[in-house]
Amino acid sequence: MSEVFLFFVQKKQKKCLLFLHDSYYKKAQIRLALKGKTMTNEMSTLNSDSIIPELKASNVKSVFQKLSTHVHRLIGTPERFILGHLLEQEKRENSGIGNGVAIAHMRLPRLTHPMIIYSKLSQSVDFNANDGEPVDLLCLILSPDHEGSVHLQRLAKVTRFFRDISFCDKLRTATDKDEIRQILKEINYHKLAA
Question: Would you please indicate which residues are annotated as catalytic (active-site) residues?
Answer without folding.
Answer: 105
